[in-house]
Design goal:
Number of domains: 1
Structural class: alpha/beta
Number of helices: 10
CATH architecture: 3-Layer(aba) Sandwich
Pfam families: HTS
InterPro entries: Class_I_gatase-like, HST_MetA, MetA_family
Largest sheet: 12 strands, mixed
Function: Transfers an acetyl group from acetyl-CoA to L-homoserine, forming acetyl-L-homoserine.
CATH superfamily: Class I glutamine amidotransferase (GATase) domain
Site (Important for acyl-CoA specificity): 111
CATH topology: Rossmann fold
Pathway: Amino-acid biosynthesis; L-methionine biosynthesis via de novo pathway; O-acetyl-L-homoserine from L-homoserine: step 1/1
Oligomer: single chain
Helix content: 25-40%
Shape: globular
Order of helices and strands: EHEHEHEHEHEHEHEEHEEEHH
CATH class: Alpha Beta
Number of strands: 12
């Protein structure tokens, strides 16, 4: 079954060219089925790119999924046309009256700031709290994951001496969990961050379970509340060329830019990236939708508690 997307969303034409089946709202209304409702709080600067990355992964399921995009009222994006935001995004104040089967909260380019110094910290923590009673399962990504761990559990973040940048092998620590169904003993995950969380801080919290980590990039996945929350420090959603664009954007403008680890063929930036994470990315999102959203959410969405 396809994703239900807003009419004229740029991702629709991009994904059709990749032979991914999506349908716009006009066609979807002709099907009598309750789709899963997934809301995305997109904090990334390049909104359209992140939309497409996430929609690509959410499409790999036999279930019909309806996507909503949420924006913050207390922050105005600088890198996305205002017309796009007005057409496809809704403020939290408008969406908070509804309940959702799943939610994704992305990273944001503000990780070196203290959380309380972030302009929209009061609003986003309000959204974090709201999600616990209005969403069946929420996936927090990169800065979103660290911010939520701090808000709910006082888990601090730590600055890195150099950017964690590249593709790093991760080990599932509880491979029998449904989120890892079909996974290999080792899977790769893109990382692009200047901060980290530490295992010893997380282990002090009984409600938190570290479920994947790397000897090189540290904790990568944490689960809470039986799968109602996942905190992922990396970017499995990244397209093949995202790290390449970041590297070439920052080269010569920052003093901490190094070649992304284990990314280019023969470690040569003149070569194409070697994509080694896409299969597990699709599997992770399909498992999340199936086992932690579809099989856990009530048929009457208003029964979510």
């Amino acid at each position: 079954m396809p994703l239900r997307l807003p009419d004229k969303l740029p991702a629709i034409e991009i994904l059709k060219k990749e032979n991914i089946f999506v349908m716009d709202e006009t066609r979807a209304h002709s099907q009598e089925i309750r789709p899963l409702r997934i809301v995305v709080l997109n904090l990334m600067p390049l909104k359209i790119t992140t939309e497409t990355d996430l929609v690509r992964l959410l499409s790999n399921t036999p279930l019909q999924v309806e996507i909503y995009f949420m924006k913050l009222k207390s922050h105005t994006p600088k890198n996305t046309p205002i017309e796009h935001m007005m057409m496809f995004y809704k403020d939290f104040d408008e969406l908070k009256r509804h309940k959702f089967d799943g939610m994704i909260i992305t990273g944001a380019p503000i990780e070196t700031m203290n959380y309380e110094d972030v302009q929209y910290w009061p609003e986003i923590t309000n959204i974090f709290d709201w999600a616990r009673t209005h969403v069946t399962s929420t996936m927090y990504l990169c800065w979103g994951a660290m911010a939520a761990l701090y808000h709910f559990y006082d888990i601090p973040k730590y600055s890195l001496a150099k950017k964690m940048f590249g593709i790093f092998g991760q080990y599932p620590l509880e491979p029998t969990l449904p989120i890892f169904r079909g996974f290999d003993d080792l899977f790769n995950m893109p990382q692009s961050r200047h901060t980290e969380v530490h295992r010893n801080d997380i282990e002090k919290i009984d409600d938190l379970k570290i479920i994947a980590e790397s000897p090189d990039s540290g904790v990568s996945m944490v689960m809470a509340r039986g799968g109602r929350e996942f905190f992922i420090t990396g970017h499995l959603e990244y397209a093949p060329d995202t790290l390449d664009k970041e590297y070439k954007r920052d080269l010569g403008t920052r003093d901490d830019v190094e070649l992304p680890f284990n990314y280019y063929r023969d470690n040569n930036p003149d070569n194409d990236p070697l994509v080694t994470w896409r299969a597990h990315a699709n599997l992770l999102y399909s498992n999340w939708i199936n086992y932690y959203v579809y099989q856990e959410t009530p048929y009457n969405i208003d029964d979510i508690r």
